[in-house]
Amino acid sequence: MNDVRRIDRIDTGPRFTEQDAIRLNRMFRGHSTEEMLEAVIRDGLAGDIAVVSSFGAESAVLLHLIAQADASVPVLFLETGKHFPETLQYRADLAARLGLKNVRDITPDPADLAAKDETGLRWSYDPDGCCELRKVKPLAKALVDFDASFTGRKAFQSSTRANLPRFEIDTSDGQGRLKINPLIDWDAERIDAYFEEHDLPRHPLVDEGYPSIGCSPCTHKVAPGEDPRSGRWKGWDKTECGIHTPLTDEGELPPGYEPFL
User: Closest by alpha carbon to 147, among 128, 170, 125, 123?
Assistant: First the structure.
């Protein structure tokens, strides 16, 4: 009888809990990034996993590390329709260079674009709504079948990322996915050294003064000494696109990320 109840029961709980994240952070304390990635990927410690990559200024480091462990790990690229041409070419070149076998373009819903950004200019008056339409919603749909995702976030990039752990719970939709930040404790010097050591190609816009690269309308050059992400959404009170923004207690996106009209 007990066996029947177990078979019939539908588990609606989260994939992972805060305690799971704490346990994994403790498990890999003192271990190198490479050791952690190999264990997580090859031993399936996080279930079905993908890496979310912008193919931006520093993306080659994480993608190279993951390719060394398993080049077939799905790589999700948010093809917003607003990228620099240089980014799209870099995406193709880097994927070929690293032998990535499963790069997926994640695109906005055409019906949403037609209904809510027909002119393609929403970024100019509502950047939060534009990011929700072109990044947040498409990524949420793409991650439904995954238990965890790798991100390229690093503590030195901005104050909003300064205290992130290696393992955390993705609170974007309440499903309890793991969000893994393999490079969170890497500084700019270590990133640069890895590029040199492995002869990795740089995004072509880095040399033109773009240390952080997103969609072309909302990415500007950064002066020497400025926050690397200060060129993103310049002039707006906005530091993140929304894919790393937690839900509120009511299960809704926070102000600025509410469903748009």
Answer: 170
Is the separation of the CB atoms in 180 and 150 below 8 Å?
Answer: yes
pLDDT tens per residue across span 103-139: 999 999 999 999 999 999 998 898 888 989 999 899 9
Closest CA to 55 of 31, 69, 29, 75: 75
In one letter, which amino acid is 140? A
Give the residue numbers annotated as catalytic, written as ranges: 241
Task: Name the helix (H) or strand (E) containing 87.
Answer: helix 85-98
Residue 94 binned pLDDT confidence (cut-offs 50, 70, 90):
very high
CA 205 to CA 86: how far, in whole Å? 7
- 122 CB-side CA count, 13 A: 21
Place of tokens 């190198």: 32
> Looking at per-residue confidence, does 228 or 85 come out higher?
85
**Measured CA distances, 205 to 61, 216, 225, 241 (Å):** 16, 11, 17, 20
Q: Calculate the CA 73 to chain-centre distance.
A: 14
Please name the residues in contact with 215: beta carbons below 8 A apart, sequence gap of 6 or more: 80, 82, 83, 123, 134
Give the separation between CA 220 and CA 212, rounded to whole angstroms: 9
Q: In which element (H, E) is residue 103 found?
A: strand 103-106
Is the whole model's pTM more than 0.85, yes or no?
A: no
H/E run at residue 139: helix 137-142
For residues 127-153, average pLDDT: 91
Calculate ∠ Cα 246-248-249, nearest 5°. Answer: 130
Q: CA 257, CA 241: separation in Å to the nearest integer?
A: 9
